[in-house]
Amino acid sequence: MAMKGNLIVGQSGGPTAVINSSLAGVIKASWKAGIRRIYGMHYGIEGLLQEDIVDIEDYITSGQDLSLLKRTPSAFLGTCRYKLPPVEGHEDVYEKIFDILDKKNIEFFLYNGGNDSMDTIKMLSDYAITHNKKQKFMGIPKTIDNDLPMTDHCPGYGSSAKYIATSMKEIIRDNESYGVSKPTICIVEIMGRHAGWLTATAALSKDIDCSGPDLIYLPEVTFDIDDFIARIKKLAETKKSIVVAVSEGLKTADGKFVCELGTVNDHVDAFGHKQLAGTASYLANRVTAETGLKSRYIEFSSLQRCASHLASRVDADEAYNVGYLAAEAAFNGETGKMITIEVKSREPYVETYNSFDIHEVANIERKVPKKWIINDGTYVSDEYLEYARPFIIGSIQPYTAGGLPTHLTMKKKRK
Amino acid sequence: MAMKGNLIVGQSGGPTAVINSSLAGVIKASWKAGIRRIYGMHYGIEGLLQEDIVDIEDYITSGQDLSLLKRTPSAFLGTCRYKLPPVEGHEDVYEKIFDILDKKNIEFFLYNGGNDSMDTIKMLSDYAITHNKKQKFMGIPKTIDNDLPMTDHCPGYGSSAKYIATSMKEIIRDNESYGVSKPTICIVEIMGRHAGWLTATAALSKDIDCSGPDLIYLPEVTFDIDDFIARIKKLAETKKSIVVAVSEGLKTADGKFVCELGTVNDHVDAFGHKQLAGTASYLANRVTAETGLKSRYIEFSSLQRCASHLASRVDADEAYNVGYLAAEAAFNGETGKMITIEVKSREPYVETYNSFDIHEVANIERKVPKKWIINDGTYVSDEYLEYARPFIIGSIQPYTAGGLPTHLTMKKKRK
User: Do A165 and B404 touch (CB under 8 A)?
Assistant: First the structure.
């Protein structure tokens, strides 16, 4: 079967370790369906608006290429953070997009991202329906933040979880190695401004060979600094090594981000620029100031979203599947939907896939259920662990050369 | 052959990903020599002084245990930062140590660490000779800083290099993924207060599939902030993604650490504590203040010394070998020496081992040769890359359970 229309796929928002597995799924489904041209938006919708479009088969032509693509971190096509304006008053933007799509005979439009990206799918599919356009628009979920609704979890989350849990085990070991001197407090900062899904993964490190973090603070709960310091003091009475996982998005009762507290005096450096401390660095300083104990901080920073060398097999497979199924759904005439993951059984792990009306997904942020946050907001429950454990199972061994992982690059294959 | 005397081994200084491979080598050599009791200092010499001594065969009794030990990050026995005082005026300290050793019939004393630890071996072996003690003292090199003299390189360095180079490849990919908007400058901070060996490893990321960092700054060269900003501005004219590797130990011409510059106004927070910014965070703020460009910073922190999931095979094997050979040398009556690595050929890689008088090693810090620092102090040369490339070859796959690496813990095996 050969389709008449072409396909375009874009990647959007913060990259993940498996965002390219979804791209691989889209390409494979397109090959199977006999799509003539598989286009890629270079740097997402922002690139598309500048007609920066690539022909994916300039770079990827074989199953071997797909295997390396799956092992390549970050967005192969490039990404953007761009929210489409409302149609009213910005008809020109929409006309431009559809002109570009029509010019390239693009019938299938796939967009891989989080909340904002699903909003893009919603706006475009609504516009297509109301303006009688032929294009089909499908959303492919992706976010390390795991905050998309309607899906059990999001591709990208599992690999970040595996990175965080693996690193936490190693950090806890490292922190425990000094035992004779005074206790050392290590505060680890994890991404997630509004939802604590990623910070919760720190608890996965707890096992027979690892005590796990002592405290875990999610942004779903108001952060009480005095209570935090009191808990550290209490722990320090019996423990030499104290490790705490904190979300970058912690807020105090007055609504301020903890990471903003370090600049209360509006301190600016010699060049007029505020020195912003992170949440963990602020808290580490505060702990030392109030307890006299040694403290340090670790920020996982972008490593937690790009460490493809630690990608989870379950996560990579699911990312591939949602990409594949989104393309297939578009070929079957579906539009204005996002593929979702439903978990039929957690032990053994069995998942299945559905598609959901994009209006029920876009712009809605799902948070960690309050019932899963325990110990007065300082840990996550066994129910959370049962939920998350399957996502980090298995690994995708990188292909290596000279001891380092190799990645697929945008070097043209054919002329 | 069964030896009459017992052995004690200690780990000291900052942990590495392969410090336990050296411990495995010591244990294996001791088994082969028929040592009756293999003791471990719990938390290094500091623990020994408190008679905190463990019987290693309470935890490790088989080749399987040794395999898991090699895959376990950080110091299995615990570590310390403790410098022995001079003998004169502190005879009691030395008498106490030798009393403890005699009480346990310990004849062989092995210490695994960096400069300070080799000083410990020097002091103890000198004392033993001048006081007619039977004990033999051997040093096992270990430091991610790679700053020990007389040895081509130090066990621990290769695995940190592999972690840094792998992460740099992933970070550069991540930073390149935003392409339409303004350039983004990412500044990565790497350990090494006085020597730039570890920062130099960032250059290993450069390959056919990775452009590598744009600039690399080692502490061996005085850091000129104005020149740095000018280079960033120049790069930003043609590049969207700029990644810079900086050593935590960078100093300006007036001898100040860059990381101290963020507190020029003696800013203290509400609790009287200085907020110390790191080198990378200070420079990222400074870049944005002076260029208006987006910047971010990443600190590898203790991850670069504890990521055993990325341990290098060459490094782990060499760590094992220096441990094994140090024990064997002690059994053969050698004392006051450190095992060193000599590289016979880099391509193919062939190494051999020697032992060196500890007086030529202790307290001497080896820096990166000036001739290997090029481009006005902003990069490292191909000669450096040829030197370092063999150290990251191969990997030790972790044993895993539930998707995470498993580690050996101090749980007693026998009663």
Answer: yes
